[in-house]
Design brief:
Elements (H helix, E strand, L loop, with lengths): L5 H11 L6 H13 L2 H16 L1 E3 L6 E3 L14 E8 L2 H10 L4 E5 L17 H9 L5 E4 L5 H14 L5 E4 L15 H9 L8
Parallel strand pairs: 3-4, 3-5, 5-6
Antiparallel strand pairs: 1-2
Helix pairs in contact: 1-2
Length: 204
Protein backbone atom coordinates (compact mmCIF):
# COMPACT_ATOMS: atom_id res chain seq x y z
CA UNK A 1 0.00 0.00 0.00
CA UNK A 2 1.43 3.34 -1.07
CA UNK A 3 2.56 5.63 1.75
CA UNK A 4 2.39 2.95 4.47
CA UNK A 5 5.30 1.33 6.25
CA UNK A 6 5.43 -2.45 5.89
CA UNK A 7 4.17 -3.53 9.38
CA UNK A 8 1.13 -1.26 9.15
CA UNK A 9 0.31 -2.34 5.61
CA UNK A 10 0.63 -5.99 6.61
CA UNK A 11 -1.76 -5.66 9.55
CA UNK A 12 -4.32 -3.81 7.40
CA UNK A 13 -4.07 -6.58 4.84
CA UNK A 14 -4.57 -9.28 7.47
CA UNK A 15 -7.62 -7.53 8.97
CA UNK A 16 -9.01 -7.11 5.46
CA UNK A 17 -8.95 -10.90 5.03
CA UNK A 18 -11.56 -11.30 7.78
CA UNK A 19 -15.20 -11.76 6.70
CA UNK A 20 -17.19 -8.54 6.79
CA UNK A 21 -14.10 -6.36 7.20
CA UNK A 22 -13.55 -3.98 4.31
CA UNK A 23 -10.49 -1.80 3.63
CA UNK A 24 -11.76 1.17 5.68
CA UNK A 25 -12.60 -0.97 8.71
CA UNK A 26 -9.24 -2.75 8.40
CA UNK A 27 -7.47 0.61 8.50
CA UNK A 28 -9.46 1.77 11.55
CA UNK A 29 -8.69 -1.46 13.42
CA UNK A 30 -5.01 -1.17 12.59
CA UNK A 31 -4.72 2.42 13.79
CA UNK A 32 -6.68 1.51 16.93
CA UNK A 33 -4.01 -1.08 17.69
CA UNK A 34 -1.28 1.49 16.95
CA UNK A 35 -2.78 3.98 19.38
CA UNK A 36 -3.21 1.38 22.12
CA UNK A 37 -0.66 0.13 24.60
CA UNK A 38 1.83 -2.64 23.80
CA UNK A 39 -0.01 -4.81 26.34
CA UNK A 40 -3.25 -4.49 24.38
CA UNK A 41 -1.54 -5.69 21.21
CA UNK A 42 0.11 -8.56 23.08
CA UNK A 43 -3.22 -9.61 24.63
CA UNK A 44 -4.83 -9.66 21.17
CA UNK A 45 -1.96 -11.68 19.72
CA UNK A 46 -2.11 -14.16 22.62
CA UNK A 47 -5.88 -14.57 22.20
CA UNK A 48 -5.44 -15.28 18.47
CA UNK A 49 -2.82 -17.94 19.16
CA UNK A 50 -4.88 -19.49 21.97
CA UNK A 51 -7.99 -19.86 19.81
CA UNK A 52 -5.97 -22.03 17.41
CA UNK A 53 -4.00 -23.99 20.00
CA UNK A 54 -6.58 -24.48 22.76
CA UNK A 55 -9.77 -25.07 20.77
CA UNK A 56 -10.72 -28.47 19.33
CA UNK A 57 -13.83 -30.10 17.87
CA UNK A 58 -16.11 -32.43 19.81
CA UNK A 59 -15.81 -35.98 18.50
CA UNK A 60 -19.60 -36.42 18.76
CA UNK A 61 -21.34 -33.21 17.67
CA UNK A 62 -18.40 -31.47 15.92
CA UNK A 63 -19.02 -28.26 17.87
CA UNK A 64 -16.03 -26.38 19.25
CA UNK A 65 -14.71 -27.36 22.66
CA UNK A 66 -11.58 -26.85 24.70
CA UNK A 67 -8.64 -29.14 24.11
CA UNK A 68 -8.92 -31.98 26.62
CA UNK A 69 -12.69 -31.54 27.02
CA UNK A 70 -14.02 -34.18 24.63
CA UNK A 71 -16.92 -34.82 24.42
CA UNK A 72 -18.05 -31.23 24.87
CA UNK A 73 -20.11 -30.06 27.83
CA UNK A 74 -23.37 -30.27 25.84
CA UNK A 75 -22.82 -33.86 24.70
CA UNK A 76 -21.75 -34.96 28.17
CA UNK A 77 -24.72 -33.30 29.89
CA UNK A 78 -27.01 -36.19 30.85
CA UNK A 79 -29.90 -33.77 31.45
CA UNK A 80 -30.15 -33.06 27.72
CA UNK A 81 -32.39 -35.19 25.50
CA UNK A 82 -30.11 -37.48 23.48
CA UNK A 83 -33.02 -38.63 21.30
CA UNK A 84 -33.27 -35.23 19.57
CA UNK A 85 -30.52 -33.69 17.47
CA UNK A 86 -30.62 -30.17 16.08
CA UNK A 87 -28.45 -29.79 12.97
CA UNK A 88 -26.91 -26.36 12.35
CA UNK A 89 -24.40 -24.97 9.90
CA UNK A 90 -22.00 -23.21 12.27
CA UNK A 91 -21.02 -23.16 15.94
CA UNK A 92 -22.45 -19.63 16.23
CA UNK A 93 -25.88 -21.08 15.41
CA UNK A 94 -25.69 -23.21 18.56
CA UNK A 95 -25.19 -20.07 20.64
CA UNK A 96 -28.20 -18.41 19.01
CA UNK A 97 -30.48 -21.38 19.75
CA UNK A 98 -29.16 -21.77 23.29
CA UNK A 99 -30.04 -18.13 24.03
CA UNK A 100 -33.71 -18.96 23.51
CA UNK A 101 -33.72 -21.66 26.19
CA UNK A 102 -36.25 -23.53 24.04
CA UNK A 103 -34.25 -26.55 22.88
CA UNK A 104 -32.98 -29.15 25.35
CA UNK A 105 -31.59 -31.82 23.07
CA UNK A 106 -28.20 -32.30 21.47
CA UNK A 107 -26.60 -30.58 18.47
CA UNK A 108 -24.67 -31.41 15.34
CA UNK A 109 -22.55 -28.77 13.60
CA UNK A 110 -21.97 -29.25 9.87
CA UNK A 111 -19.37 -26.47 9.48
CA UNK A 112 -20.98 -25.08 6.37
CA UNK A 113 -23.67 -25.85 3.82
CA UNK A 114 -23.78 -27.57 0.45
CA UNK A 115 -22.65 -25.22 -2.31
CA UNK A 116 -21.59 -26.92 -5.55
CA UNK A 117 -20.67 -23.55 -7.07
CA UNK A 118 -18.06 -23.12 -4.34
CA UNK A 119 -16.92 -26.74 -4.50
CA UNK A 120 -18.54 -27.67 -1.18
CA UNK A 121 -20.05 -31.14 -1.43
CA UNK A 122 -21.19 -33.60 1.26
CA UNK A 123 -17.61 -34.77 1.79
CA UNK A 124 -16.57 -31.26 2.88
CA UNK A 125 -19.16 -31.15 5.70
CA UNK A 126 -19.62 -33.18 8.88
CA UNK A 127 -22.45 -35.20 7.35
CA UNK A 128 -20.82 -38.62 7.74
CA UNK A 129 -20.54 -38.04 11.48
CA UNK A 130 -24.24 -37.16 11.67
CA UNK A 131 -25.25 -40.30 9.79
CA UNK A 132 -23.09 -42.39 12.10
CA UNK A 133 -24.86 -40.92 15.14
CA UNK A 134 -28.27 -41.95 13.81
CA UNK A 135 -27.36 -45.28 12.24
CA UNK A 136 -27.57 -47.33 15.44
CA UNK A 137 -31.00 -46.04 16.44
CA UNK A 138 -31.96 -44.16 19.58
CA UNK A 139 -32.50 -40.85 17.78
CA UNK A 140 -36.23 -40.06 17.50
CA UNK A 141 -36.02 -36.67 15.80
CA UNK A 142 -33.51 -34.69 13.80
CA UNK A 143 -34.32 -30.99 13.50
CA UNK A 144 -32.81 -29.36 10.42
CA UNK A 145 -31.94 -25.79 11.42
CA UNK A 146 -29.82 -24.79 8.45
CA UNK A 147 -30.16 -21.24 7.15
CA UNK A 148 -33.23 -20.32 5.05
CA UNK A 149 -31.22 -19.57 1.91
CA UNK A 150 -30.48 -21.56 -1.24
CA UNK A 151 -27.53 -23.42 0.27
CA UNK A 152 -29.31 -24.09 3.55
CA UNK A 153 -32.42 -25.39 1.82
CA UNK A 154 -30.36 -27.68 -0.43
CA UNK A 155 -28.51 -29.00 2.62
CA UNK A 156 -31.76 -29.63 4.50
CA UNK A 157 -33.27 -31.51 1.55
CA UNK A 158 -30.16 -33.62 1.15
CA UNK A 159 -30.04 -34.50 4.85
CA UNK A 160 -33.77 -35.30 4.95
CA UNK A 161 -33.24 -37.78 2.15
CA UNK A 162 -30.18 -39.34 3.78
CA UNK A 163 -31.81 -39.61 7.21
CA UNK A 164 -35.17 -40.92 6.01
CA UNK A 165 -34.53 -44.58 6.74
CA UNK A 166 -32.73 -44.23 10.08
CA UNK A 167 -34.68 -41.52 11.93
CA UNK A 168 -38.43 -41.73 12.64
CA UNK A 169 -38.97 -37.96 12.43
CA UNK A 170 -37.02 -35.36 10.44
CA UNK A 171 -38.29 -31.80 10.87
CA UNK A 172 -37.36 -28.38 9.52
CA UNK A 173 -37.48 -25.23 11.63
CA UNK A 174 -40.35 -22.91 10.75
CA UNK A 175 -39.62 -19.70 8.85
CA UNK A 176 -41.69 -16.57 8.77
CA UNK A 177 -41.89 -12.90 9.60
CA UNK A 178 -39.59 -11.55 12.31
CA UNK A 179 -41.13 -9.99 15.40
CA UNK A 180 -41.43 -6.26 14.83
CA UNK A 181 -41.16 -6.62 11.04
CA UNK A 182 -43.49 -5.02 8.49
CA UNK A 183 -45.25 -7.00 5.77
CA UNK A 184 -44.38 -4.44 3.11
CA UNK A 185 -40.67 -5.11 3.56
CA UNK A 186 -40.90 -8.91 3.58
CA UNK A 187 -39.71 -10.85 0.56
CA UNK A 188 -42.01 -13.26 -1.27
CA UNK A 189 -40.40 -16.43 0.08
CA UNK A 190 -40.72 -15.23 3.67
CA UNK A 191 -44.40 -14.42 3.17
CA UNK A 192 -45.05 -17.80 1.57
CA UNK A 193 -43.35 -19.60 4.46
CA UNK A 194 -45.35 -17.52 6.93
CA UNK A 195 -48.63 -18.65 5.37
CA UNK A 196 -47.48 -22.25 5.13
CA UNK A 197 -46.48 -22.24 8.78
CA UNK A 198 -49.65 -20.61 10.13
CA UNK A 199 -51.35 -22.11 13.17
CA UNK A 200 -54.64 -21.64 15.06
CA UNK A 201 -54.96 -18.59 17.29
CA UNK A 202 -55.32 -19.43 20.98
CA UNK A 203 -58.58 -17.76 21.97
CA UNK A 204 -58.36 -18.80 25.60
Amino acid sequence: MAGLIAPVARLIEEFNRLPGVGPKTAQRLTYHILRGSPETAKDLAAALVAVKEEVAYCSICCNITEVGNDPCSTCSDERRDATRICVVEEALDVLAIERTGEFHGRYHVLHGALSPMDGIGPDKLRIAELLARTRDGGVEEVILATNPNLEGEATAMYLADMLGSSVPTVTRIARGLPVGGDLEYADDVTLIRSFQGRRPVDRG
